[in-house]
Specification:
- The complex is a heterodimer of chains A (341) and B (153).
- With 341 residues, chain A is α/β, with parallel strands linked by helices.
- Chain A folds into 2 domains: 239 residues, Rossmann fold (3-Layer(aba) Sandwich), CATH 3.40.50; 73 residues, Rossmann fold (3-Layer(aba) Sandwich), CATH 3.40.50.
- Chain A is built from 10 helices and 17 strands.
- In chain A, helix 3 runs parallel beside helix 5 and helix 4 packs across helix 5.
- Chain A is elongated.
- Chain B is built from 7 helices and no strands.
- In chain B, helix 1 packs antiparallel against helix 4, helix 5 crosses helix 6 and helix 5 packs across helix 7.
- Classes of the chains: A alpha/beta (341), B mainly alpha (153).
């Protein structure tokens, strides 16, 4: 496998599309960098130009201005064959080809290296076999790609980029259509290649809290600019708050994810040992719009001290006393009383 | 409308080299056709010059279809049905198998149709087009039904 280093420098880039004879810029003045051994997430709301930026970086469409440098060499100066050895790409659309086996899909990745007739050498076969192992698809070699699950197909597509053996891999929303487990596993897989093979992997995504826990860097596309930095840097700088201008959604800097704003219906305090029960009781109460306070709470709740005997003792307004045996009943009861229904 | 019987020996001097040339070109497009299965964007990202590859495919198709039509007249349904029969029989998307299989299945179907069109004991010969249609139409109907099922999933 190649151990090429690749550093990507994007300077003052404008991306957009051609409309008739004129050009429409979607985003201007993009300045970002990427280095070997970095997993990078591209984040931004729908329609802000993520896919356009990725397509421009892969050379599928021309930049409207500025420059993209791979190791100080301009993107435009690479021939299509040279580029195929520098970067590989996975698009967001699910591929549906009939009668194509996983092995054959991966073999396509050797295209830039094989002879005129596309004959695979022993070395090519070894590389394909290794990629299949790496993405955990061993035993799937002869399965048809239209007869495997979305998660498996996405793994196969990622394996194909490994087979293409490029220092830079670009993926457009690799975790769309996947269930939570597969989302985590795919991001984790990418994280592994970045670290073990010293590759640069850039992917766009909407899964904020998965990516903030795994990526080295985020390119965040906002309405007026593109900022980059470690996920924590961007959270501390308050950049995520600027992503949406919405009364209903806000960025919770503690949990690192977007949350829905709730109407506050009261205050509460909890008494009892901290731990799992404590945390999930908090979550349940926040869900119905109660806010934690130490001073003069409306509701005081004694949480169960052990998981064998689940009983919440509730005191509302220092008067009413209730004993409730599940969080479902607790939240329903409190919501009914406090929201004035 | 289409006949295998009217080609003279001197015409074969032109037909054979043209067909061989067309076939050679089609064998050289195997690699490009495989990589184009995933669509143009993927093909490009794997280093295929899509425009050149298209040109190669169009050229070989034109030479093959053009030379045969010039000497044997228009014969319908073979070109559209045979590659699908190949896919059905061999269950693969690899052109390394599909192109030779189309070649062989095409010859077999064509010769069988020719035999049927001039069955012994009949005075007149049937137009070969009517025989190839008998083979081709079921295949086309099958493709349409299959694709409808596929897109509704």
């Amino acid at each position: 496998m190649s151990n090429q280093q690749v550093n990507i420098t994007v300077r003052n880039l404008s991306v957009g599309y051609k409309k008739g004879k004129s050009f429409v810029a979607i985003k201007e003045g993009i300045n970002v960098n990427a280095h070997s051994g970095e997993l990078i997430a591209l984040i931004g709301s729908n329609g802000i130009g993520k896919s356009t930026l990725l397509r421009t970086l892969t050379g599928f469409q021309k930049a409207l201005g500025g420059e993209i440098l791979f190791n100080d060499r301009k993107l435009g100066s690479f021939s299509i064959k040279e580029l195929a050895r520098v970067l590989s790409f996975v698009s967001t659309e699910a591929i549906r080809v009939q009668n194509l086996r996983v092995w054959e899909l991966l073999a396509m990745g050797r295209y830039p290296y094989t002879n005129l007739m596309g004959t695979l050498t022993d070395e090519d076969n070894r590389i394909i076999q290794r990629a299949i192992q790496q993405v955990g698809l061993a035993g799937y070699e002869d399965r048809m790609i239209d007869q495997i699950s979305d998660g498996e197909r996405q793994r196969a597509m990622i394996a194909r980029t490994l087979v293409q053996d490029t220092p830079l891999i670009i993926l457009d929303e690799p975790t769309a259509f996947l269930d939570i487990r597969n989302k985590y596993e795919i991001i984790h897989l990418l994280h592994d290649f970045v670290k073990t093979e010293n590759k640069t992997v850039l992917f766009s995504t909407h899964d904020l809290n998965i990516s903030t826990s795994e990526v080295d860097k985020i390119w965040l596309m906002l309405d007026d600019k593109v900022v980059e930095g470690a996920p924590e840097d961007l959270i501390l700088a308050g950049n995520f708050d600027q992503m949406f201008h919405s009364d209903k959604v806000y960025f919770n800097a503690e949990s690192g994810d977007f949350m829905l704003r709730k109407n506050v219906i009261g205050t509460y305090t909890l008494k009892g040992p901290e731990g799992r029960i404590f945390n999930w009781t908090c979550r349940a109460l926040q869900r119905i719009g109660l806010v934690y306070t130490e001073t003069k709470p409306l509701v005081v709740i004694n949480i169960p001290s052990e998981e064998k005997n689940m009983l919440w003792k509730v005191e509302i307004n220092s008067k009413e006393k209730l004993e409730i045996s599940s969080l479902y009943e607790l939240t329903a009861e409190l919501y009914k009383r406090l929201s004035g229904l | 409308m289409g006949s295998l019987g009217s080609v003279t020996k001197s015409q074969l001097n032109v037909l054979i080299p043209s067909v061989i040339f067309g076939l050679v070109l089609s064998f050289f497009s195997i690699k490009s056709l495989d990589v184009m299965l995933l669509g143009e964007q993927y093909a490009k990202s794997m280093g295929l010059r899509v425009r050149n590859a298209r040109f190669l495919v169009f050229t070989s198709t034109s030479i093959l279809a053009g030379s045969i039509t010039a000497f044997c007249g228009p014969i319908g349904f073979i070109g559209i049905a045979v590659p699908h029969i190949g896919r059905l029989l061999f269950k693969t998307a690899r052109h390394k198998i599909l192109i030779p299989s189309s070649l062989l299945i095409g010859s077999i179907v064509m010769l069988l149709s020719d035999i049927v069109s001039q069955m012994p004991g009949y005075e007149s010969t049937l137009p070969i087009n009517s025989v190839t249609a008998l083979v081709g139409i079921p295949v086309i109907i099958w493709i349409i039904l299959k694709n409808r099922k596929f897109s509704s999933v």
